[in-house]
Amino acid sequence: VVVYGETGAGKSSLINLIAGRVVAETSPDAPPCTTIHLSYDVMIEGQTFRLWDTGVLHGRLPAAMAERNLTAFLHSLDQEGGVHLLVYCMRGRRAVRGLKTDYKMFSSVARESQVPIMVVMTGLEDYPVMAEWWNRSKGPLMKHGMYSSAHACITTLKDDPGEIMDTFLRSRLQTYS
């Protein structure tokens, strides 16, 4: 399972949410804390899954070089048994604006292998019903060519008081569905 998205989208936090413990380093600051592709073996209901936290794909790199690096990374995973799911992680509040670059890069590189793509929206703590974000945003996403096999609207915050912890636990359960 390859988790990808723009810097600050919450990829490492999502991996920690799925694992149920801190396995990936996170940073609340703008600079990326994951600069290389890192893997984490996570046990879910008795089965081990390898989750890949993608490093910075572009920014300082020209788009063509970033795409070559991505192609090489996914090809190396194919040699090790393949990629079975791409998880596109994005901040709900930043959706559509500038997100197409990473999404299109991954989906075009992965299209040949027909790997399903799941979209996970993070940063939805302020939504009483996080799924409402999807209901309002799926049309514009599809209009921009962003399609997925599944989606989840979640929060990866767990340190806030009160209802946030309950929302976090519901998010964790949703990532398993």
How many H/I helical runs? 5
- Sheet with most strands: strand arrangement: 2-3-1-4-5-6
Query: What string gives the helices and strands in order?
Result: EHEEHEHEHEH
Q: Give the tally of β-strands.
A: 6
* Low-pLDDT runs: 160-165
| Sheet having the most strands | 6 strands, mixed
**Proportion of β residues?**
15-25%
Task: Report on this structure.
- The longest helix is centred in the middle third of the chain and has 17 residues, at 63-79.
- Residues 160-165 have low confidence and may be disordered.
- 36% of the residues lie in helices and 19% in strands.
- It has helices at 11-19, 63-79, 100-110, 131-143, 163-176; strands at 2-4, 38-44, 47-53, 86-91, 117-122, 150-153.
- The chain is of the alpha/beta class and 177 residues long.
- The chain has a six-stranded mixed beta sheet with strand order 2-3-1-4-5-6, with helices on both faces.
- The protein starts with a strand and ends with a helix.
Keywords:
single chain; alpha/beta; six-stranded mixed β-sheet; 177 residues; 5 helices; 36% helix
Structure summary:
The chain has helices spanning 11-19, 63-79, 100-110, 131-143, 163-176; strands spanning 2-4, 38-44, 47-53, 86-91, 117-122, 150-153. The chain is of the alpha/beta class and 177 residues long.
